[in-house]
Structure formats: C-alpha cells, structure tokens
Amino acid sequence: MTTDTTNLQAYRASLLHFHADPAFAEDAHTWIEDGLLLVEDGRVKAAGDYASLAPTLAPDVRVVDYRGYIIAPGFIDTHVHFPQTDIIASPAPGLLPWLDTYTFPTERRFGDPAHARAGAEFFLDELLRNGTTTAMVYCSVHKESANALFEASAARKLRMARGKVLMDRNCPDFLQDTADLRESEELIQRWHKQGRAMYAITPRFAPTSTEAQLAATGELARAYPDTFIQTHVSENEDECTWVRELFPQRRSYLDVYEHYGLMRPRAMFGHCIWLDDADFARLADTGSAIAHCPTSNLFLGSGLFDLAHADRAGAMVTLATDVGGGTSFSMLQTMNEAYKVARLKGSYLPALRMFYLATLGAARSMGLEGTIGNFVAGAEADFIVLDPKSTPLLARRTAHCTTLEETLFALALLGDDRAIRATYAFGERVHERSTYGQVAA
Ligand SMILES: [Zn+2]
After folding, report:
1. Which of 67, 95, 96, 233 has the greatest CB tally within 10 Å of its CB?
2. What distance in Å separates the CA atoms of residue 77 and residue 318, rounded to the nearest whole number?
C-alpha cells in the first residue's frame, strides 16, 4: 500500500517528541535517530522510522532531507509581552521602576494601529526565528494592539493566544481602562477560535485592577469558559507587599485571583516566585498553570522560582520568556537560565525535561494536548528543525556528545536563534535560517 500523495510532505531527520513528563514517567519521549515526519494538509500524518515509512511513499513524494538535524515540536512560550519588544534589555533597578520608566511609555504607542501592525510583524518574525510557534501574549491596553496581532498571526496561520491588557488604576491616565469589559468581549467574539486564534483574558496584575474590574474579569471568564486567562502573580517582594496593602482581606496574592474566579483550567500565572504551600496546592487543585520566566526573574532581580516545590504540589509548570522583562526571545536561552535557577534552588533540571516543558508540557497546561506539542497523528504540524552544529562551539561540543541528554543540554546552554534551522507552522515553512534543506534524490 502506498500513501496518498495529495498535499503530502515528508521530512527526514532525527525526531524528538514527548508523550509524558520525564520527571514523572519512564519512556516519556520518543527519539528516532533516522526518522521521517509525514505532514498532510497542515497536520501530522505519521512520525516514525525512515526505514519503515519511506517504502509507503509514492515515488513522486519529495523527501526534504534534514539529516544531521533534529525535528522537534515548535516551542511554546507561555508568557510574553508583544509591545515590550522595543524595550528589551532596558536598565532599571527592579520591576516597579522598570514599568514606570520604560513599559508604560512604550505601550502607549500601541494605540496607533500602524505602529501596532509594524510591531506585530516584527514580534512574530522574532518568535518564529527562535522556533516559537505558539505563545500566550500580552498586548497593550488598546484593542488596536490586539487586533494587529490577531491579523498578523492569522496571515501566518499561527496558533496564538493573546489578549488586550486590562488595568484601571495605579497606571498612567493614558493607559487607563475601566471595569466595562465590552472591548475584551468584542475581541473574544471576533477572534476566539477563528482559525487557530485563541483569546486570553488579560488583567495585567492585581495592583492595576480595581475590585470592580477584577469582578467583571471573573464574570467574563465564566461566560467564556474555553478562553484563556493570563496574569502575573508574586513576581517580586515589593509588589507582594503592595498587594497585601491593596487587598488586606485576602489570604495571599494568588488568593486575590481565586476570590474573583480567575483560577481554572487554561489560567496561566506568570512568575509564581513568592508562593506558599497553600498557593501551590490551589494552583494544582484548580488546574491552573505556572509560567516560569527565568531570564526575566534574574534580570529584574525578582527572585528564584522553586520548581521542586511546584512539582511536589503537582502544579503544572511551563517555561516562558517574559520579553521585555525577559532578556531573550529564545526558549533555548530560557532553558539555560531555568537550569541555573533550579541549581540555585538545590534541584536539577535535565535537558529532556526542559524540552518537554517547552513543548508538550505547555500544550497540556493550555488544554491543547493532541492539537499541538507533539507528533501524534492528527496534531497540527508546528515543528522546528534544530541544528546541533549551528555555531563552531556547538559543533565542537556536540561532536563529543554520547547521549541525547548531552546533545539537548548543549543546545539549551549554548543555543539561540542560530540553532533554529527552520520553523514550520501548520505544515508551512514560516522561517528559514539560510538556505532551504537539501531535497533528496
Ligand atoms: Zn510579564
């Protein structure tokens, strides 16, 4: 029997993907040294051994030859601010002065549709250059910024979640919203589940929302239960003190969100550094997830996320860049810093787990397992072609690797956008580093 050739694409490379969390399951990953990925109409048709799948192909199917490279699912960045692209790597002594000095003035410009559109194009190109095919994105407070990003993502057929920021106090007048969430609801109705678009209800963080706005946000989240929710929690100690003053009746910072109905499956909480046992338990019990943002936490001096604590509680953890508080769009560089943060907290984070967290782990936490995050048949074909020899140093190091863990670890510690040979979204190539892969004879 031969495979139907209609729209069939075939990619030969080493294949890596996951079925479970390597921290809690044996045989959590699939590694095929000489593999073949078959894609049809934007979806994975099969992922297996080249030797067994190649004979099923009709003679006219071209096999894109990526031998020497690793094909893995596209990375998922679960917390990133698109208007902050322009202020990445801006110096400031901590989170709150950084917001006042850089973030708010920059976000103001995103009320201009032309500025928002140009920013969205650059932002998406940068994600794809770094192998990130799905992200949970904070826009600015302006609906124009959200519309610009939705339109640019739709043109690239990307599976992205994003929403306009909500904030109606403790921010400059020019960014101030109200407790009337009509604009968010209109954006949900216009965009959520249109093609691959997804909406995330996005209160910036508790200090910049009145209780009236938080209550309205909870109502909106109940009215649209399959939307995402994203916000920040317990990032830095000054911020935590501030929240205690603003919400003295609440048990904890996280409890503010629970009180207003914002903890549920598909809720993503950025940072989660200064949490206690009860907070981690609530995250686990409500099916909410954590976006661990190590480059941002180190850059702003916010603190060290306790992965082992989250694991003990059974809370879902993902990795995120948090650009522009984060210092890199690269999920490889995010892994690099996550590894070091884990070491400083006395635990050890293997490379295999980091690749899981950045792919299937994130998909699971977003309720998207089977849709993105691995290569099960029928999944949307978002994948990247990793180059273990992308720099002279990586080439020299990986030439001496004897295990998959060593190779992935070298990629995580030494790799960046140069290690992404190509990026595919819904079966189409949306980024290539230089020349296209060789086509086998
Ligand atoms: Zn953030």
Report:
1. 233
2. 8
